[in-house]
Amino acid sequence: RIHTIQVDSVQRWMEDLRQMTEVE
Amino acid sequence: RAAQGRTYGNLGNTYYLLGNFRDAVASHEQRLLIAKEFGDRSAERRAYCNLGNACIFLGEFERAAEHYRRALQIARQLKDLAVEAQACYSLGNTYTLMQDFERAIDYHLKHLIIAQDLNDRIGEGRACWSLGNAHTALGNHDQAMHFAEKHLEISKETGDRS
Fold first, then answer.
1. Taking CB atoms and an 8 Å limit, are A21 and B126 in contact across chains?
2. Which of A15, B64, B67, B76 is the most interior residue, by most CB within 10 Å?
3. pLDDT tens digits, A3-19
4. Do B96 and A7 touch (CB under 8 A)?
5. Residue B58 — φ and ψ, nearest 5°?
6. Residue A6 has what pLDDT?
7. What letter does residue B98 receive in the DSSP assignment?
8. Rg for chain B (alpha carbons), in Å?
9. B10, B17, B99: residue with CB nearest A4
10. Average pLDDT over residues B75-92
């Protein structure tokens, strides 16, 4: 997991995802 | 019952934003159940998407992929292209986390095609970035270069200095 987290495009996606919710 | 469904959705989102991913999953599962009772496909799609996101942060990538695949299926039925693109992008990233780069490429290509259809240059840039990385991981350096060049071109156009 530590290895794959270094894929910068995925890391950026996860940073955005952390703040992202599908609102009711 | 309908209000309960919306409340579970809101609770799930709040748990998620607080970093409590286990309770987020439990709430969104309830939300999903009620959405199914009502045949509310949009709410069902949102629940799958929220469930997928929470599973990513629990490190449960296979389960996340399952949820995103359901979200994708519904997005296609609803003919919601933007949401379909988002689900493909999530799946591409999830398969990258699982180091299944061939599948990641499949989904990132699907995302790329929709982004182009929708004239979404930012989405297209992200797809190219992701495709470049996946091809690099597979040792396909010519393909990686092709997408890196496209990513650079689009980044210049959108003024994305980073």
1. no
2. B67
3. 544 799 999 999 999 99
4. yes
5. -90, 0
6. 72
7. T
8. 17
9. B99
10. 98
